[in-house]
Amino acid sequence: MGIPSSNVAVAFGRQSAVGVGAPPTYGVGLESGKPWNEAIDQGEIPLTSAFPGFSEVERRSVKPGLVVPTLAYARLAGLFLYQLLGADVVTGAGPNYTHTLTPANEPLPWVGAAARYGAEYAALLDLKVDQLEFKWAGPGKVDMTATLAGKTIWTNQGSRSFADGATTSGSPNITSPALGLLTQADVGRPITGAGIPATTAGVPVNATATASGVTLTLGPLAAFNDEAGQPYFSGAGATFLMDAASTTPIAAKCQAGSIVLKRNADSVILAASQMPDDIVTGQLEIAYSLTLVPNDLTQWYKVETGSGTGLTPSGTPPIGSADVTFAYDTNTSLRIFSNRVTFLADMPDAKPKGGSAAVTFAGTAFRPTGGNIVSAVVKNTVAAY
Amino acid sequence: MQIQVPEPCTVDIAADGERHEASLEAGTYDLGTASPGSAAALRHLVTQGFATVIEDEPGEVSELERTTGTPIPAGVVEPTEEVSQDGNSQQ
Fold first, then answer.
1. Residue range(s) defining the domain that contains residue A203
2. Contact B14/A90, CB-based, under 8 Å?
3. Which of A238, A243, A330, A361 has the fewest CB atoms within 10 Å, counting from its CB?
């Protein structure tokens, strides 16, 4: 039997600290891509030789990471935005919370991931989001693609087991020399072994590695939580605001678009190892692309002249704004906005067969004095990441 | 400096090279006596519009003065002198 390429999922969780595994809390399927990957830089060493052909090869770096194209699930979108931006203020009372996420400098939080491809598994540790894209076209789903760079990867790390996991009935502790085989990457992962009964009184027993030990739980335990059935965002019901020459955006007839948040994460390779020693983020870049079907060319005139009634091109870039909100319901939404955005737009094409003209406004956000280059407000059921 | 937090919130931020998490109830907080983590959280709440500064106590270095490092004469809201990156004073 081959490897089932549809039996693929990745689950993410926030790490309490670098190097400490996270429970795989938010599990999702992929629209494409790979549940884990390693960018391996290796190649031949140019040497002359007494005989034809290469003679030496070296491996220069191994950079773990993954690209996750999935749906814009409300809880996972919040986690990615929290990791990428770095500051979170949570208000509201359970079960609904409002996360106001704004940019912060390092140190940013770390996330961990547990991934499966058929019966193959991998654990990725110490990840940072390098790029996060939200993309939509029409009233259907919003696609969310996260590109993450990591320090550490373990492959073939499914449910861990140990042969002599002796436990004493009634004791909360499992004592076994074999527990030394467990690592921080095992946090959140089920553990099986001779000392752990499959059931007790008919109820499944599960042992799970935690950051400080092993926890026994009763009842079924999924390999990782699954976001299936959880709210995800769509174009329908969304609010699109933009203005090419005002910091106060106005309603726009948006047909499609994207928002890309890029953190320029750098995998730091030291001489002592091919694996990254650290993941250090760089400049925060925010790009908006809004394809509008406008009633007139007012916004295009604003891009060119700085005014909706301008007659001549402006010598300075007009300062505009963008504000996009996807709403699942009143308690579940995603809003991303910037109030200092410079847009560019081409004139719409002439089309012999007609139809409404579409104009794509491509905007780059800049940090206003004393303000945020971007802010995100996520409403979901997560009390804290 | 007194800071008014109008509603309960949790704050998770990076400040001074470390990450800080703080859960704050609604109420008034003294920035001078708050723990480093809470102080960082309170400052973040003020800059993001979630909390308001009530007043500077007499003799206390104002937040603006603390963050800019520039003494602020009485009655003046903004620093009167800035030092540009090349070290030249600008009025």
1. 160-218
2. no
3. A330
